[in-house]
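Quick log. Single chain, no ligands specified.
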Amino acid sequence: MTVPAPTVDVHAHVLLPEIEALVAGEPGLAEARALDARRNGPAALAVSGPMVRARFARLTDVAARLAAMDAQGVDVQLVSPSPSHYHYWAGEETAEKVYRLAGEATAAHCAAAPDRLRGLGLVPLQHPALAVEALDHALAQGLLGVEISSHAPGRELSDPAYEPLWTRAERSGALLFLHPFGCTLDERLDRWYLSNSVGQPTENAVALSHLIFSGVLDRHPGLKLIAAHGGGYLPTHIGRSDHAWSARADAGEGCAHPPSSYLKRLYFDSLVHDPHVLRELVRVAGADRVLLGSDFPFDMGTEDPLAALRAAHLPDADFHAVRGGNAAALLRKD
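-> predicted structure:
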């Protein structure tokens, strides 16, 4: 008798107050928070504070997390630090303290329920020279890899300075979870929570395009990279990228194959908030490249990821692959 794969949510967060205590008063923090406030606008900040406080227990307490998972029908979560902990403004000394504390605290959180929680650490993308040792530190804690944003100040993911990180991640089999935090469109998105609803999928699309068009995925075909939010706008508009690649020498010089072909080398979570978009994501990336994701427990996620998956009316085999079969193999949770 075949035992069904567990239901695995690859997009779930943990809040680590000890990191915020660590960076309190550090030079650069006030400026970073002011930028965040400008990008989001006062109305969004007024809603976000109470929202996080209402979810604090699920973000920090393992018992509350497990109870919520049981209610959702989720067996296993891949837990990543809240992106608010990136702190890419920090200097080298503080950045090293942040990634070490993030890895150790996330590992401790997951160790309270090792059969149900697996974790990711952080990498200070603003200091590429620290990236490999940060990844190694995360792996040494028993974590499966690291979470990264879509860019760092002054650096895109296509920057050659990140080549050692991609090499180490590929060779170690580490997971890379691409989750943006902050959109460089800034005040253009400072009303109606456009900073998130438009900004996040934009950042996903830009970051993935840098990885594709620069040839990073040609040089590192074995990377295990999961894109949050279904990869943003890119998968549903990949035809425009293919056209540019074939029509223009400047667009096609960096990668060997049509951009759409690289979607089948990436992984995507299912958090797209539209069953038709989810079906299209499965079509263009392949059912073996889409993983259940909820953005637990934030309000821009889904309280019922399985219901969202069922709404796409995928073939039975594809449904179970996305529900947990793909992730079970990726997380080594057979």
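The domain at 8-330 is CATH 3.20.20.140 (TIM Barrel).
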